[in-house]
Description:
Elements lengths: L28 E2 L2 E2 L4 H11 L3 H4 L3 E10 L2 E10 L5 E7 L18 H11 L3 E5 L16 H16 L4 E11 L1 H13 L5 E7 L5 H9 L1 H9 L6 E4 L5 E4 L1 H6 L5 H8 L3 E6 L20 E6 L11 H16 L3
Parallel strand pairs: 5-6, 5-7, 7-8, 8-11, 11-12
Antiparallel strand pairs: 1-2, 3-4, 4-6, 9-10
Amino acid sequence: MSRIRSYLQLGVRPSSQTVPMGSFVSILRLGRRRVDILPAVFLLAFSYLCPPLLAAGGSSLERTVSFMADDFRIVGTLTEPNSPEPSPIVVILHGMGGNRHGPTIRGTSVPLFRTVARNWAARGVASLTISTGGRGGSEGDYVDMTLERRVNEALAAIDWIVAQPKFDKEKISILGHSQGTLVAASAARRLKAQVPVQSVILWAPQSNALEVYKRSMGIKIYEKGLQSEQNEIVSWYGVGGQLRKFKRAFFTGLRDFNAVMDIGAFGGPTLIVTGLRDRWSPSWRAAEFKASGDQCTFLEFDVGHRMGAGIGPTAVDLMARETLSWLLNLP
């Protein structure tokens, strides 16, 4: 067993949790001196010495489920172990403009979240990946999306899980990717007194919604959104040149979401995963989560914002393996 000590150059305290490491340490920065590892050599060696997650596990079951949130039907993909025993479960929340499947992994036809969910189910951990309203089969119009609405969807997903007898109610975790990290952190804070959320996992985290989106859209667009009519649509080109279109409620709600403060209020085990190649949620910004307390563990991989999907299945497998290792070793 080895304690993960990532981001020591930023002064971040390691978590009290320990994680069994594989043949290679997944952290690409150790201490104050950067360890230079050729990504191709590293990933090739990893794939040789550490077979894919699915190869070592059992089978999984996958089906589409739905539940109501704010008068709209939200659709999710439930992936679970093929076992009669109650299993831990992770709610997975996609990023802005995404859906419950996630981006397609380079060199395959399989999306990120489906791959991760199937691999984790083969190791005994279920997942429920949901699409926000107006995306991925869920009812509603995406231009009406707000972070508050997304939190309500996440809370409804937890309610649905709690009502199912097949899941371990003491081992419910929430995973957010990109914008989904803001939602995951807020949901975990609100659930603290109601449902015992075991842990939170933040992939490519966003710390402060107002700062993130003002930087993305520019101050002029932000102010235009604040001053717009209730049903007026304000648009801008965001990350990757994608067109974003939302109504006033999206802009006015940004100031209410700060993942650093929410994780601090949650106070439970939190895994923060960043990518060395990520330009949109760079690793150095994760240092802001130092303020969230000593329950945070930090992992950094040689991936981009899509958590390895833009590189290939081996990069995804490494990231998913270490995330699962952390989760399974929680007390």
